[in-house]
């Protein structure tokens, strides 16, 4: 699959577009406004510039030449695979999948979502082709982390999953694991309650953010502590995933702690806004 579409050019969308173009694909990314498209392009240029400086990409300009950032979903009409990476909001994603079903004309195109926690079935059933809708969940930062979770819904055709696997492993050079369509899939269902526990620990005054993070780095060999990880993921995304997990399983360990909600309301979203548990 050479004709790739991505919707959303934020943290994840830009990363997915970059990886697809670096592996030789031709990518159309659609953003919601001219301003967001400009910011998305700047994000791609910065990331590819860093990759070139580190010798990981021969020519950032050549890769960028294979990426078009647009604002009209019609630009996705001829795509063979489209990965949705917009905000983690069910209503927004449902509305987008309805539109994708209208605009993406290639009859066997895969309509994929990078959602961290929204049931794939909710997105599949609003299209006329739920057999071609599935979760293809990348990890942040996309150019660095190897894993992709493949998440078919009950209605996804087995050939769709296999074509997605071939794309992800064969073309993009990633490694896939298979997950059921359950909130959080495998990795976030385990990781998010861990991050929430760290926030509760800090909130209760049990230990400082720095000591919690240093504890896990030095004592459990984690590459970064859970609060630094929350800042990297984005606290709005952490909260959204927690809400979905709680809705699905009704377990207190998935409930978002008040401090997380207050920080999101305050716009302290982590790295992307310059301040979260740490200042950047
Ligand atoms: P983000 O906030 O960085 O980017 C979202 C982008 O989507 C923004 O640039 C926004 O302008 C754009 N957008 C919003 N509505 C749109 C629409 N209707 N059409 C086109 N563009 C639209 O969010 P991020 O972190 O990239 O997350 C995107 C998705 O990826 C979410 O579903 C999230 O759960 C998932 N995800 C996030 C990870 C993370 O570590 N942040 C990891 C894996 C998955």
Automatic annotation (TrEMBL):
Any Gene Ontology biological process: fatty acid beta-oxidation
Residue stretches making up the 3-hydroxyacyl-CoA dehydrogenase C-terminal domain: 184-280
Keywords linked to the UniProt accession: Oxidoreductase
GO molecular function: 3-hydroxybutyryl-CoA dehydrogenase activity; NAD+ binding
Site residues by UniProt (Important for catalytic activity): 137
Pathway linked to the protein: Lipid metabolism; butanoate metabolism
Residues engaged in binding CoA: 47, 54, 116
Keyword Oxidoreductase: yes
Enzyme class name: oxidoreductase
Limits of the 3-hydroxyacyl-CoA dehydrogenase NAD binding domain: 3-181
Keyword presence, Oxidoreductase: yes
SUPFAM superfamilies for the chain: 6-phosphogluconate dehydrogenase C-terminal domain-like, NAD(P)-binding Rossmann-fold domains
Annotated EC: 1.1.1.157
Family to which this protein belongs: Belongs to the 3-hydroxyacyl-CoA dehydrogenase family.
Listed name of the protein: 3-hydroxybutyryl-CoA dehydrogenase
Organism: Nocardioides perillae
């Amino acid at each position: 699959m050479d004709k790739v579409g991505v919707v959303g050019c934020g943290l994840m969308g830009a990363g997915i577009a970059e990886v697809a173009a670096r592996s030789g694909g031709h990518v159309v990314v659609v953003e919601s406004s001219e301003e967001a498209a400009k910011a998305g392009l700047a994000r791609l240029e910065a990331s590819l510039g860093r990759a070139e400086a580190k010798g990981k990409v021969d020519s950032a300009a050549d890769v960028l030449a294979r990426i078009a950032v647009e604002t009209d979903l019609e630009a996705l009409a001829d795509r063979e695979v489209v990965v949705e990476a917009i905000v983690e909001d069910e209503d927004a994603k449902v509305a987008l999948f309805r539109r994708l079903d209208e605009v993406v004309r290639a009859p066997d195109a895969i309509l994929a979502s990078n959602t961290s926690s929204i049931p794939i079935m909710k997105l599949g059933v609003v299209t006329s082709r739920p057999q071609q809708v599935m979760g293809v969940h990348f990890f942040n930062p996309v150019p660095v982390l190897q894993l992709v979770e493949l998440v078919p819904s009950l209605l996804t055709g087995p050939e769709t999953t296999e074509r997605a696997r071939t794309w992800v492993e064969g073309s993009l050079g990633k490694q896939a694991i298979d997950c059921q369509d359950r909130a959080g899939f495998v990795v976030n269902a385990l990781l998010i309650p861990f991050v929430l526990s760290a926030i509760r620990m800090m909130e209760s005054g049990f230990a400082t953010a720095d000591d919690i993070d240093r504890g896990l780095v030095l004592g459990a060999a984690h590459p970064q502590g859970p609060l630094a990880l929350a800042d990297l993921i984005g606290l709005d995304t952490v909260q959204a995933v927690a809400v979905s997990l709680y809705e699905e399983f009704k377990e207190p360990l998935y409930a978002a702690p008040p401090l997380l909600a207050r920080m999101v309301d305050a716009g302290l979203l982590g790295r992307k806004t310059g301040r979260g548990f740490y200042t950047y």
